[in-house]
Amino acid sequence: MTAASLARALTLFAIFIAHAKAQPAFAVQQIAPGDYVHRGQDDVATAANKGDIANVGFIVGSRCVAVIDTGGTLAEGRALRDAVRKVTSLPVCYVINTHMHPDHIFGNAAFKQDNPKFVGSAKLAQAEGMRADNYLRALNRELGDAAKGSEIIPPTDTVDGSADLDLGDRVLKLQTWKTAHTNNDMTVYDEKSGTLWLGDLLFVRCIPVVDGSVVGWLDDIARIKQMNPRHVVPGHGPLDAPWPQSLETEEHYLAELAHDVRAAIKRGETIQQAVDTVGVDQRDKWLLYEIYHRRNVTAAYAELEWEQ
Amino acid sequence: MIESPDDTRGHSAVFALLASLALLAPCMTQAAQPDDDPDKVARWIDFREGAFKGRTVDAHGDAVIKLDAPVRAADAAVVPIAISAQFPQTPTHYIKKIYLFIDENPEPYAGSFEFTPESGLASIETRVRVEDYTFMRAIAETNDGHLYSAVRFVKASGGCSAPADKDDGVAERAAGAVRLQAEGKAVAGKPELAQVMVRHPNRTGMAMNQITRNYATAYFIRKVAITYADKPVMTANVNFSISENPNFRFYFVPGGNGELKAHIEDTKNKHFEGAVAIEAQAAGQASAMK
Fold this sequence. Notes:
The complex is a heterodimer. Helices cover 37% and strands 20% of the residues of chain A. Chain A is built from eight helices and twelve strands.
């Protein structure tokens, strides 16, 4: 081997190593023609996962692109935007937020430069406004530098009931729901591919989080069950979730929660007693049970003790 | 995140590990810790001096009063607590007042509960907001003027600055509905457990709306006065430290037929009332179903 060829070999080797060490690009999967989704990590937001814990993605029409949820930080929003650019150079005309939670909205600012319409429930802005202080404090505390530049961009266009967005030969049907996961849940149905983006109205594997109403959520599920999508995108958990099984599993958890809490209230048990006993058999069935289940019981009890 | 190819994986991995360990710990420099000395907390010392002016507070009050609270709150805005009197009220020896103090809350003095011999048991259960990791204290004052305290450490955060309700406006529009009920069968002469619930946002005034830049005004229940047969059995003077939709469990001693009444006031001077007739069986007829 000559010195020159050795040098060349070493250079190529170094480039190979550099690429091997470089982080993989923000991965998106085309789960249906034109529907691209990034799977977030099944975890709470930490410095290690940089807040990338929700499923976010985009839909490509003939005229423009709609982004659906933008992730937990500005950085993630940028990565999502880069992923859009790898697929198409069409403009982003809509950034849709399915609900107010930080893991779904803090990447919005990455799309400001595209001048899209930011779309969400008519109740989204108020919900975000009330929580912004807490969310930003928690974001900076948990994620530090990874959260730099993250801000809340509330919707410019709101939906109360249903609305259609046209991406060019592609109509998205937006729908708001009775208070369930939150009081500002909104779903997106892509008619062309039969893909239903449920946001956090559907949790798969990760425990459903009640931050709205357990009764309302069960009512909404009964209606969602009537739908017959070809593909389903949950807010958390494996993409293209099995239908209707994934919804039924979630329904089972919520229905048991409501049933057992009602029984506890009827027996005269205190909220702490309910928290200590309701749903302990669900522990191994859901990820993040330890973080969220007792809070779900508290929320359900505070809601159901006022039932007639 | 695209790393620069110049980063060595080893260095960045160690840094990430250290960073995540540091961030996993709650704000350690400022937050209270369970193994702090509860007698050395400045806010408590100030309050004690102001409220009790040099009177001794017996920190080993187990024979008089116990405080139960979760070690780790499931929801910081709804933390269930139970203050249990350790002896029944009698005309010669009874707890007349219990003070509740939550050290690290923006308003640490959560309120007081007054009792009489007719209360039967000076126990009270409710739910409170907890803003940060903190000691929580119940201080009982007996009729002879002695003071006893019970202390617990609770891990929770954000309870006071959490938004008012999960469905804006629902709690406020429904505000004022009162439920008052006795739990179980009343037996004359025996302390009977009762519960009063009132729909109310019980707002702290500390949740800022970033869009409007306004703070929703503080709006909360400030007084709950319970009487049985027109005699006071439990009077709570409280504030927004109590969770949304305040809920109190307390005791009274039924005798023959009488009415349990609740008179509730909030900071807009609105009054809400509740009443329930109590039919007490004579002691010894406990098997009869009502």
